[in-house]
Request: fold
Amino acid sequence: MVFITGFLGIKEVFSKSVLASLLNRMQWIFPAEYQFYPRSWKFPEERRELDTYIKRKTELGDSPTFILKPSYGSLGVNIFLFKDLNDVVYSESAVVQEYVSNPLLVEGVKFDLRLYVLIASYNPLEVYITSTGLTRFCTVPYEAPTVHNLNNDYMHLTNYAINKENSSYSLDTGKRTVADTLDMLSEDYDAGTFWVDVKDVVAKTLIAVLPALHIESRSYILERQLQGPLCCFQLLGFDLMLDEDYKLHLLEVNSNPSQAMVYEKTISPGVEETLSSDIDFEIKKQFMSDCLKIIGRKILKHGGDVAVDTSYSVVPLNYPDLMLLEHCRKLFFSLTDGLKLNLSDFIEFTKKFKLVTSEQFKLDDVHILFNSLSTEDGLLSFEDFILALQKLSQRLNGDKSIRNELWDILRYCQVADV
Reply:
């Protein structure tokens, strides 16, 4: 067994554009369950779709605001707001999100919440979340975005790296614990409701990325010719926001959350002093030591609840319907030892499960379907395989919802007994 302190391909899976694509895919299949993140587009690949959306909203009399974030960016670098797509001159990989323009405010300023999530295993998926976390505040009172204040980063962006540059920044008010923030909101908002909603968002997000984690892991194993299963764990930073209706929004997931326990204080122009941050020390020491405690217990095959006496609690994963794409991934892996299907693999699959019939679907149809979905290399990726399953289901059972079409074909192939 190989132990690795980090999931393979985690940076790619949780890059802002890839995560948006994975969540969009789940919303395509489960529209009601995936309403917890802002409407998002890969940029520049989906610029045309974004332009169409803006024009449609404008025709309805709306004036939406959008935020562009580089796919692999951090510290608020190159993030900006816009209303007019013609103002955007950016060619690197990025995600564009519809801006949450009605954020919940504390003392008149916008804030977000950083919560720490531990994936102790991805096969099977085992997830824990800390009861501790950080709230990051803007340093300028919030106003709804207009063309006149779009560039005011201190008003719209909660990043510590940005707001610490404001002369009015104070660590006492710029960062607080999530517990303190919930206490401030307690008259109108129940902390228990908050944690139920958070665990729901975390579970659904990780279910959305689970097939991609398996694919990245297989890619890593094949590339390095490793033997035996990989034992991995990963610490993630979930960035969340509450709006004025107390609805929780997932903004992004950081695959390498900062573990720094210091902050920089400007003592004169161009001169900074590095000082210890009590609040970072309090929060981060706790979740990091408890993380290692949980992983140590798992390695030693500790019986019972490995999170007992820690700041972590289990994230329930009781969403059998949402595991649909994971069943598709298992079927895909059963058909190939690699990362893509060739035509022979696909034909063998249709024959094995008696999908080729004299009336509904002939062998020539299999060739046509494969060629219509395969990539330039003449192979079928997992994403294309999902579309192929949908098309096969339509041939067998007629048009239904995407969700039901995929479940029907999995049942037909006796993959999922549900």
